[in-house]
Amino acid sequence: MTITDPQVEIAKPNVAIILLAAGASTRMGVPKQLLTYQGRSLLNRATESAIASVCKPVIVVLGANFQQIRAQVNQTSIEVIENAEWELGMSSSIKSGIVSLSKYSNSIDAAIIAVCDQPFLSPEIINNLVTTYSSTGKSIIASHYAETFGVPALFSHKFFSELAALRETVGAKYLIEKHLSEVFCIPFPLGAIDIDTPQDYEQLQEQHCTDLLEK
Fold first, then answer.
1. pLDDT given at position 211
2. In sequence order, which residues have a C-beta less than 8 Å from that of residue 99 and are 6 or more positions away?
3. 148-156 and 140-145 as β-strands: parallel, antiparallel, unpaired?
């Protein structure tokens, strides 16, 4: 009788997610983090998707209007980080989030960088980044939309020092372009919809009304 060795289950990676929500929303005129869509604020939609995903920990980086926005984040499973240097740009928020992961020792294999103003971010999209990271062996998994790539994007821990050292005027996309040979993209067509201006928000609401009428 031949004895077959039991299959060894491949360990799932420990992936953190960092939600960037520190901007002042200058083009919007009001904190876009608190704008509502389908009954929930954009920030709450993003945090709920993160919590429902396989990612842990969930880090939310706030900055402008900190007290007002912090009051709306009441999930105990979220760690809120205040970026006191939010005026320096998105890179400073990425740095704040990455630095906060140091307390988790070496247990974090990778981190997803996401933003709160993509209203169609979902647990499925987040989990797809993680499973693709596991299956492809690539060090960066980016989202593809509108003939480009960007966030949400997953970065192996080997890029944490580079993420924390990004210049003030650049974001995660700079690192994706720098290491294209290590990038794998997954489709996220609705990632092209982000909310920066009153016109963006009006179009989002109009589309929601149209969808309701068609049901």
1. 56
2. 164
3. antiparallel
Nearest to 117 by CA among 185, 30, 58: 30
Q: Do 157 and 112 form a contact (C-beta atoms < 8 A)?
A: no
Where do we find the tokens 């009428």? 213
Residue range(s) defining the domain that contains residue 71? 15-214
pLDDT of residue 6: 45
Asked whether residue 98 is domain-assigned, the answer is: yes
2 in a structural domain: no
Q: Does any domain span residue 5? A: no
Asked if the bond preceding 31 is cis, omega within 30° of 0, the reply is no
What value does the mean pLDDT of the chain take? 90
The DSSP code for 63 is B
CATH of the domain at 102: 3.90.550.10
**Residue 49 · residue 144 · CB < 8 Å:** no
Residues contacting 92, CB < 8 A, separation 6+: 22, 83, 85, 86, 168
The reply to whether 112 falls in a domain is yes
Q: How far is the C-alpha of 136 from the C-alpha of 40, rounded, in Å?
A: 35
Distance CA 99, CA 110 (A): 13
Tell me how far apart the alpha carbons of residues 56 and 107 are, in angstroms, rounded to a whole number: 11
Q: By the 8 A CB rule, do 35 and 69 touch?
A: no
Number of domains observed in the structure of the chain: 1
pTM attached to this predicted model: 0.90
| Residue type at position 177 | E
Q: Which amino acid is at 66?
A: F
